[in-house]
Amino acid sequence: MDPLPTPAPLASKLRNTLVRYHSIGDGEWRVAKKTKDATVWRKPSEEFSGYLYKAQGVVDDVTNRIVDHIRPGPYRLEWDSLMTSMDIMETFEENCCVMRYTTAGQLWNIIAPREFVDFSYTTSYEDGLLTCGISLDYGEVRPNFVRGFNHPCGWFCVPLKDSPGHSLLTGYIQTELRGMLPQSAIDTAMSSTLANFYCDLKKALKT
Questions:
Q1: If I label 35, which of 93, 151, 198, 200 is the partner at 20 to 30 A Cα–Cα?
Q2: What is the distance, to the nearest Å, from the Cα of residue 3 to the centroid of all Cα atoms in its chain?
Q3: How far apart are CA 141 and CA 88, in angstroms?
């Protein structure tokens, strides 16, 4: 188990990585799934043997409220059907923490429940916000869970210029689920999970 990292350099590196992902040209992405709420693309990850996913959709709400529902905190557990528990293990400052969370089994439990320990950082980006994270090798793995690993992930949320009450939400996710899993099952689960994320988020913001 590694000691906790110094937050400032890790936060800075994480932000720079996400901004670089955000500048990847459209031609490098391939559509993985399209719904009325979001489009999901993918490309081979530079970090591991799986894919980097990009999801994007317009959400009918202001940036701050959307990000409050996504980043670590009480809102996330209320609406995210995939997340089954979340604990803040360390808080460095208001916008920076280490959290441990668990996810439900997927695809009729072909993918068993997973546990993650992530460093999370929220910062300003253009006229909106970026909330991002990366997994850490920290804390004991609890029984009955496989420890997954999130390579640099994040959500950019910026107000639409011609409609400030709406926001463009763009996510970059590359999750290494680990364990003995067929890659095709992982790819199906990731695309569906990201599309459902937008649907669930929109419902939560309306309540």
A1: 151
A2: 23
A3: 15
Task: Give the closest residue to 174 by CA, choosing from 116, 126, 124.
Answer: 116
DSSP the chain: -PPPPPHHHHHHHHHHHHHHHHT--GGG-EEEEE-SS-EEEEEE-SSSSSEEEEEEEEESS-HHHHHHHHSSSHHHHHH-TTEEEEEEEEEEETTEEEEEEEE--BTTTTB--EEEEEEEEEEEETTEEEEEEEE---SPPPTT-EE-EE-SEEEEEEEETTEEEEEEEEEEE-EE--SS--HHHHHHHHHHHHHHHHHHHHHHHH-
Tell me the domains of the chain and their CATH numbers. 35-205 (3.30.530.20)
User: In this structure, what token pair is assigned to residue 38?
Assistant: 């979001």
Q: Which two tokens stand for residue 120?
A: 């999370």
Judge contact between 14 and 119, C-beta under 8 A. Answer: yes
Q: Tell me the average pLDDT across 58-73.
A: 94
Q: How far is CA 172 from CA 52, 91, 157, in A?
A: 7, 24, 12
The model carries a pTM of 0.94
Cβ-contact 178, 150 below 8 angstroms = no
Per-residue model confidence as pLDDT tens digits over 112-157: 889 999 999 999 999 999 999 999 999 888 888 899 999 999 999 9
Strand 146-147 and strand 149-150: the pairing is: unpaired
3 pLDDT exceeds 90?
Answer: no
